[in-house]
């Protein structure tokens, strides 16, 4: 594995200006409610509305001429596919995305709208990864994993460099981040450990999809039962041999699981405090802090709002038909 901090720093410079630096903003309302200084890392404001654009842009930029000509294939539950389609469109690289039939329709529409070809499978997300990888190997087309790719992880790690630069000498005490396949957590965590070593990395999982968590607990990747979750962006099993597994072992300091009700409450809290509609994966990170608020009272805490790609009806169903203060 290449020197990851160096790869992250290279990506941090190279993906600009296409991927802007996302804001790190203090939330006065959430800070007052939770008894700590809450700083929101606003990756939901990035192009395609999710952090995934970081890793996709970095991977597409390092492709050779042959790969640019053949195009690339990937697998996704939505945001990664959108990100690769977005980056591919800007670089003139054809993109094919394998997706589960259970994926959010709005995300599938967005992938097609960005010019990518969809292959829809009536199968779990991990099967889409396997089939996309097999297709790539059979046809000489590079496969871009949503997480099991060092260039993708390095791109996601740019969020950690930004946090360290934005927080400055007054470093954050902790950063709360959702965990799925581990690309975001391992990239961000690797950057934080290098550039802001006193900051703790807190990984948060939905109770209904704790695949990487169970792997970390067992010391090996294993099959884990999953159930539907608002955090569809973190759903899906972890590929055997994934580079993110040992990285998550190294960089995640604390582990938390949150219920679907807690995720919905966190999404609602962001809407009330900041008037932002964020998706379930972003709610997962804040839900972890809301659950452990007493342990972090008086501290300076970062929360990664990783995406905003959720349909209005699903959002309303998650947070309640009407927010407090609104007429019914």
From TrEMBL:
<dbReference type="InterPro" id="IPR050147">
    <property type="entry name" value="Ser/Thr_Dehydratase"/>
</dbReference>
<dbReference type="GO" id="GO:0009097">
    <property type="term" value="P:isoleucine biosynthetic process"/>
</dbReference>
<protein>
    <submittedName>
        <fullName>Serine/threonine dehydratase</fullName>
    </submittedName>
</protein>
<keyword id="KW-0456">Lyase</keyword>
<dbReference type="GO" id="GO:0004794">
    <property type="term" value="F:threonine deaminase activity"/>
</dbReference>
<feature type="domain" description="Tryptophan synthase beta chain-like PALP">
    <location>
        <begin position="16"/>
        <end position="307"/>
    </location>
</feature>
<dbReference type="Pfam" id="PF00291">
    <property type="entry name" value="PALP"/>
</dbReference>
<dbReference type="GO" id="GO:0006567">
    <property type="term" value="P:L-threonine catabolic process"/>
</dbReference>
<dbReference type="InterPro" id="IPR001926">
    <property type="entry name" value="TrpB-like_PALP"/>
</dbReference>
<keyword id="KW-0663">Pyridoxal phosphate</keyword>
<dbReference type="GO" id="GO:0006565">
    <property type="term" value="P:L-serine catabolic process"/>
</dbReference>
<dbReference type="InterPro" id="IPR036052">
    <property type="entry name" value="TrpB-like_PALP_sf"/>
</dbReference>
<dbReference type="GO" id="GO:0003941">
    <property type="term" value="F:L-serine ammonia-lyase activity"/>
</dbReference>
């Amino acid at each position: 594995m290449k020197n990851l901090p160096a790869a992250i720093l290279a990506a941090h410079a190279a993906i600009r200006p296409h991927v802007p630096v996302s804001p790190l903003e203090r939330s006065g309302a959430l800070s007052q409610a939770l008894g700590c200084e809450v700083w929101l890392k606003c990756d939901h404001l990035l192009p395609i509305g999710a952090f995934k654009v970081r890793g996709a842009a970095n991977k597409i930029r390092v492709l050779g001429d042959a790969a640019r000509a053949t195009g690339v294939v990937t697998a996704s539950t939505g945001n990664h596919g959108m990100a690769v389609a977005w980056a591919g469109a800007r670089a003139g690289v054809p993109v094919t995305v394998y997706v589960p039939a259970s994926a959010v329709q709005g995300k599938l529409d967005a992938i097609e709208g960005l010019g990518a070809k969809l292959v829809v499978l009536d199968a779990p997300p991990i099967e889409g990864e396997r089939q996309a990888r097999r297709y790539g190997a059979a046809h000489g087309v590079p496969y871009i994993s949503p997480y099991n790719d060092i260039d993708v992880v390095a791109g996601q790690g740019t969020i950690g460099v930004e946090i360290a630069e934005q927080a400055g000498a007054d470093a954050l005490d902790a950063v709360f981040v959702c965990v799925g396949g581990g690309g975001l957590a391992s990239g961000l965590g690797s950057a934080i450990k290098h550039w802001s070593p006193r900051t703790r990395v807190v990984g948060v999982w939905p109770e209904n999809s704790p695949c990487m968590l169970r792997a970390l607990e067992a010391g090996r990747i294993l099959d884990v039962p999953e159930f539907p979750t608002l955090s569809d962006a973190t759903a899906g099993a972890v590929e055997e041999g994934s580079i993110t597994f040992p990285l998550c072992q190294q960089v995640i300091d604390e582990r938390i699981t949150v219920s679907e009700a807690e995720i919905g409450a966190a999404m609602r809290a962001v809407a009330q405090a900041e008037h932002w509609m964020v998706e379930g994966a972003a709610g997962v990170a804040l839900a972890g802090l809301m659950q452990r608020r007493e342990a972090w009272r008086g501290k300076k805490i970062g929360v990664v709002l990783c995406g905003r790609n959720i349909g209005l009806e699903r959002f309303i169903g998650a947070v309640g038909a009407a927010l407090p203060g609104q007429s019914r």
